Amino acid sequence: MTSKKQLKARIRARMAKTGESYTTARRHVVGPSAGPGAGRPEQAADGGWRFTGGRHPSSAAIAAVLANQGLDVGEPLVFLAGGGIGAGYILWEFQHDDSRCVVLGFRNQWQYHDRWMAKTLGRLGVPCDEHRTSGTRAASKRLAAELDAGRPCVVLPDRYHAGYWHLPAALDGRGGHPVVAYRRDGDAVVVDDRGRAPISVPRERFDAARARVGSYRNVLHVLGETKPDEATLAAAALDGLRDCAAHLSAASDSFSLPAWRKWARLLVDTRNAKAWPKVFADRRGLADALLSIWECAGPVGMDGGNLRDLFADALDEAAALLDRPALAEQAERFREIHGLWHDLAEAALPADVPELGRIRELTAAVKESVLGDGSAGDHEAALAARELWAARAAANEAVTADPGPLFAELSTRVSAVYEAEREAIARLSALVT
């Protein structure tokens, strides 16, 4: 038991210090497994269900179902088939709790779960049965029937109501991310949320979580079995690359690359009502906003980070599938851009500021408990989350220094990201048209 506690502590410490995902931090701490299959991570399972981990909830959910069908189609290729990376920026101001939250979109069509699912599965040639209903009872009955028939389902529960992230009531209805419901256990639904262990959610709570957000209320996707050949996968990769290039070449400053340019300007503007010097003139919610940048851009958050590293892995696969070596060169460029995002996140929430460093540690502790132990780690996750949200509230009161220099630094970093991504996408567009 002591050894396991020490391992968990080392993984959490690395996540908090480096901003790495749980999977990456664990791999560095544990190292390759010994014995047969050395060099590959130990495969965790729950009965017949194999946990495959993953970085981004949407692509990881599809990849997990396909892997459990016996298909060798990993998350990078699934992510690419959906159009790869995206861009988007929103600063939310909530009056009920004086919070400020930055939302950064990093996946193609990040704001449209259903559209992204449809085109991703369509390109991969995976049949899918989508079910929606406004009735909670009908939705629960349908999910139970699918699970009893041995068909795992991709669903989209509200995080607050799902419960296992232990979020405060102020986040009720803020949304969630896709997970795989793969079996029932008495009066509970068991889900895979990119971790290594089952997460059991009482059915009544899970039903409420699925019904909470109107835009995707009770949505359920059941993936049919298929065996896409290499030609289908190559076509999916090429279509995804062209989609990505076209999407990020658009002029929208809300849902394409100009969103980064707009954000850079708003960080230092003094006139626009949504400019950061105006919004944070009273410093209210500043720590929340800085934390949300770190959570969005880095993989310790719940959505997988900026995803440029995942896209780079996908480009490497596409280079081989399409016999286009130049795509592998672009993969290296996007790994460099991933590093730019990492540095931006570190600047937003520096670990050497005590109040902010402790928030990083607690955020990592919650995620490690959820992904590492599932429901078995629920008590630890709850304790860490309770301290986390108290620390966030305290930090919002403690961060009172003039944020002007920080805003200027962040603006410079966001501008650099914008220019790097604009050039990289222009190069990518030339390679796939």
UniProtKB/TrEMBL annotation:
Domain Butirosin biosynthesis protein H N-terminal: from-to ranges: 56-193
Residues in DUF4872 domain copies: 225-356
Transmembrane segments: none
Name listed for the protein in its UniProt record: DUF4872 domain-containing protein
Coiled-coil region: none
Region (Disordered): 22-46
InterPro entries: BtrH_N, DUF4872
Xref: Pfam families: BtrH_N, DUF4872
